[in-house]
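Example 9 (inverse folding). The structure is encoded as follows.
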């Protein structure tokens, strides 16, 4: 009776049992079934050793389950001789072909058909574009029937749920069922053409994944028969179009709407005239604008230096919204559908690189389409139908239309958005009616082939609406927003603002009018002015690292060292503005202690600049853990045993390890790409006869290797290098990349004076922006610590004995040494620059096990001179800890909340957070 019981248990776990062509059971669910049964009950008359039982459970469980499922009668007597004792008939060899199953005679066809129910596809989410090429008989691991959530011109969008442990992302399986969005197409193209089109997506995803944190990337593509599917992460709160409609989705070809969610429950209190709504909306608009700037200027496609990217279909429906506890209006991200690559010289689409949105229509028609598939609708710019367009300026027009809708929602909610749509829905002189933002000029009698400023104009209804909103009685922040819109919604693309202009315009508007969750330029009726709350207010959240993400440092004696306690520090801050210069922290309370898996005491420990990753160095290996939400162990990295490894540092994408070769005593530095653990980046240990002294990596994936008085810059994305040269008398002491990766700073010591160099490395070749030369205080050699400013070429420097001062680039008389304006900070352990207006410091007490004090010291500017001053009321709190000085410490400040992370070589992570 045991096989019958097992069959019933499998039946209970089988998904889609009523549909044999879809039914499946996952590997984890199958193993859970067998936890209740012992194999000996199936083979009562046979003697098996313990090792054989274990081998069957490990290597033959699926084959055995299939045989039980199809009621293979000779199971008990013949499984051992026909399967177990025969090579090539284990789970690893599934699926079996009909030819290979000939030994099963009359049961071969049944086995062949049902084996796929036990072999659901494991979806691969890789950094490159991954395509699953499946036979029609294979099973997708979707545990629920697909549910429609939208449709488009070339396919439908459904919600599907992937079974537990059937989605592999970055080497990790999904422990629970995972809901994703599935965009489906049908194609009549040949298989070769189909594969060629899909493979072109490879280039795009590899480029996008490098840094587009506000661009939602697709998971993979699936080809099954003549069906084509793209899986994407599911945005829980749908998109901006649904948000602006108050939680409703428009039904195609009708004026009807369907309720998707209760707006008041998902976004409590986020209705006008709540000033928090305005701040939250513009926070997200700033992030979208920042994503466009990155897409237009910083995204790099391998082998495509003469090209740029543009979205070409920016509209509320392509701005997705996910839940985010830090934002009252969710987290807005741009869908990667529609992103296209253009040649800079011609503004024509690069034909060999397609966007995901291009592939759908290309595969649903035999007609070859070389033109970019552009988004059509009210948010399109007038030149969108022209052959040669500037895709980046098209995006700015579309974003201006989106911004105008969001402004209306901020002022009057969904009714105001609807009223604005209705107001601009009108007929032109040719009796064509639409709600676009432009129309043909009255003098134009026929629809032109090319649209430009000679035949097209912004609709009078739109301009009238803008004028009404920017009347003298309107709030100053609204008038400034309309002023920005009038620079974006311009017919001539050349005169139209850029994405960077737009981002800086939104940032300037917020800096001028918004502060601490309120609007400075207007009073909210009926509200009393109260002191600032201790609760961190909503602020613009921009992730910037104030120190290089990877830094390996050694002194002149070839022994690797890191400044006292091996400290690295970072800060995540809002952009520089006139916001408050203090952080609302009453004290530091211990939040939690994380204990990482123990492999003994580590040789070294490192924490990433964001505080999300911890790396531990052991003899011969490195282990990495993600600690942002729980503890996730990354695959172990084995290190060559021919080297004694002593130091390591970690960033979001790279691990750098330093050591001394055992036989020769030579230095060795290895860099591992954490997105591809098989990729190692060798750093030259000598260059032009000089030994390497430091290695730094920026968030733009530029490596700076330091050798005496020169720097070798390696652009990892471009696979190119260049040399930066210092003055002959200067020797590099310390260096760092600035927050955004634009600036590279070098502090060098000379015979009679010291000098700080500032290079702009965002372009190639790098440009020396300026230098700042300073008098030496003493002839003694000293090791400096360096903390760059957030957005300007300046930094805070600290000598090992404690003197701390600001160094900057002087454009006037740069060669004349200046005096240092130093203050003494002898007990400083870690620091970082906050918003260019203050230095956050962690100091120690008199004893090794003393508490860590948190301070904030002002950074002031008088004329062109910047300096650090002592503040008598700078204390922010105390982080109580008893860890030794071998620990690593990181500061992270997000939206006014200060977090201190301390990690020990024993794998203990202490987290303290300001209230």
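The amino acid assigned to each position is listed next.
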């Amino acid at each position: 009776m045991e096989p019958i019981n097992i069959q019933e248990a499998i039946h209970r776990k089988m998904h889609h049992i009523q549909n044999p062509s879809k039914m499946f059971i996952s590997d984890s669910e199958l193993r859970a079934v067998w936890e209740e049964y012992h194999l000996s009950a199936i083979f009562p008359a046979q003697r098996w050793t313990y090792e054989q039982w274990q081998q069957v459970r490990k290597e033959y469980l699926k084959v055995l389950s299939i045989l039980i499922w199809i009621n293979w009668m000779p199971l008990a007597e013949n499984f051992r001789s026909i399967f177990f004792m025969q090579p090539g008939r284990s789970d690893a060899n599934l699926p079996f072909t009909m030819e290979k199953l000939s030994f099963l005679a009359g049961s071969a066809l049944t086995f062949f058909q049902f084996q796929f129910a036990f072999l659901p596809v494991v979806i691969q989410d890789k950094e490159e574009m991954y395509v699953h090429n499946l036979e029609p008989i294979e099973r997708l691991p979707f545990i629920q029937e697909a549910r429609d959530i939208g449709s488009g011109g070339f396919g439908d969008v459904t919600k599907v749920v992937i079974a537990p442990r059937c989605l592999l992302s970055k080497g990790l399986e999904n422990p629970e069922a995972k809901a994703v969005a599935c965009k489906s197409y049908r194609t009549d193209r040949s298989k070769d053409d189909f594969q060629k089109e899909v493979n072109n997506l490879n280039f795009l995803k590899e480029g996008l994944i490098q840094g587009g944190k506000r661009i939602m990337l697709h998971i993979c593509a699936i080809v099954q028969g003549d069906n084509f599917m793209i899986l994407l992460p599911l945005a829980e709160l749908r998109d901006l179009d649904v948000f602006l409609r108050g939680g409703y989705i428009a039904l195609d070809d009708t004026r009807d709407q369907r309720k998707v969610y209760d707006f008041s429950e998902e976004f409590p209190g986020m209705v006008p005239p709540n000033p928090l709504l305005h701040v939250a909306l513009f926070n997200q608009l700033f992030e979208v604008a920042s994503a466009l700037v990155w897409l237009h200027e910083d995204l790099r496609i391998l082998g495509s230096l003469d090209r740029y990217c543009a979205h070409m279909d920016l509209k509320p429906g392509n701005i997705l919204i996910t839940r985010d506890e830090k934002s009252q209006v969710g987290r807005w991200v741009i869908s990667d559908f529609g992103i296209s690559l253009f040649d800079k010289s011609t503004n024509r689409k690069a034909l060999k690189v397609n966007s995901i949105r291009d592939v759908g229509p290309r595969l649903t028609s035999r007609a070859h389409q070389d033109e970019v598939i552009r988004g059509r609708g009210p948010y399109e710019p007038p030149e969108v139908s022209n052959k040669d367009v500037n895709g980046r300026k098209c995006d700015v027009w579309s974003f201006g239309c989106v911004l105008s809708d969001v402004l209306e929602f901020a002022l009057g909610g969904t009714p105001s958005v609807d009223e604005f749509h209705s107001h601009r829905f009108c007929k032109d002189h040719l009796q064509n009616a639409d709600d676009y933002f432009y129309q043909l000029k009255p003098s134009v009698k026929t629809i032109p082939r090319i649209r430009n400023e000679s035949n097209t104009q912004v609709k009078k209804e739109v301009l009238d609406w803008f004028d009404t909103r920017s009347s003298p009685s309107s709030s100053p922040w609204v008038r400034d927003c309309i002023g920005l819109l009038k620079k974006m919604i311009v017919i001539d693309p050349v005169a139209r603002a850029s994405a960077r202009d737009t981002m800086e315009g939104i940032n300037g508007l917020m800096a001028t009018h918004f502060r601490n969750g309120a609007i400075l330029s207007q009073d909210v009726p009926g509200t009393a002015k109260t002191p600032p709350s201790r609760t961190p207010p909503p602020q613009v959240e921009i992730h910037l690292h104030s120190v290089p993400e990877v830094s390996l440092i050694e002194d002149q004696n070839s022994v690797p060292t890191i400044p006292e306690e091996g400290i690295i520090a970072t800060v995540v801050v809002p952009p520089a503005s006139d916001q408050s210069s203090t952080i609302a922290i009453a004290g530091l309370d211990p939040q939690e202690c994380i204990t990482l898996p123990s492999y003994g005491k580590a040789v070294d420990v490192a924490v990433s600049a964001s505080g999300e990753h911890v790396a531990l160095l052991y003899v011969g290996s490195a282990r990495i853990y993600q600690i942002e939400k729980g503890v996730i162990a990354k695959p172990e990295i084995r290190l060559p045993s021919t080297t004694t490894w002593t130091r390591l540092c970690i960033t979001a994408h790279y691990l750098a390890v330093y050591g001394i070769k055992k036989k020769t005593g030579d230095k060795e530095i290895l860099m591992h790409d954490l997105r591809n653990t098989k990729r190692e980046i060798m750093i030259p240990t000598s260059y032009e006869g000089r030994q390497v002294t430091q290695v730094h990596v920026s968030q733009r994936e530029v490596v700076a290797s330091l050798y005496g008085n020169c720097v070798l810059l390696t652009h990892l994305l471009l696979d190119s290098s260049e040399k930066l040269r210092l003055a002959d008398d200067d020797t590099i002491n310390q260096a760092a990349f600035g927050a955004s990766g634009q600036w590279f700073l070098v502090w060098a010591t000379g015979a009679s004076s010291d000098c700080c160099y500032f290079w702009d490395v965002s372009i190639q070749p790098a440009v020396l922006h300026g230098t700042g030369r300073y008098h030496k205080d003493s002839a003694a050699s000293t090791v400096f610590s360096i903390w760059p400013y957030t957005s300007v070429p300046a930094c805070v420097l600290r000598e090992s004995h404690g003197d701390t001062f600001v160094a900057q680039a002087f454009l006037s008389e740069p060669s004349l040494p200046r005096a240092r304006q130093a203050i003494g900070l002898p007990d400083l352990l870690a620091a970082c620059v906050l918003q260019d207006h203050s230095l956050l410091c962690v100091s120690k007490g008199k004893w090794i096990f003393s508490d860590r004090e948190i301070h904030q010291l002002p950074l002031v500017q008088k004329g062109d001179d910047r300096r650090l001053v002592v503040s008598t009321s700078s204390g922010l709190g105390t982080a109580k800890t008893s860890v030794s000085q071998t620990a690593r410490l990181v500061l992270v400040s997000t939206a006014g909340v200060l977090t201190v992370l301390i990690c020990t070589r024993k794998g203990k992570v202490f987290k303290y957070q300001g209230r």
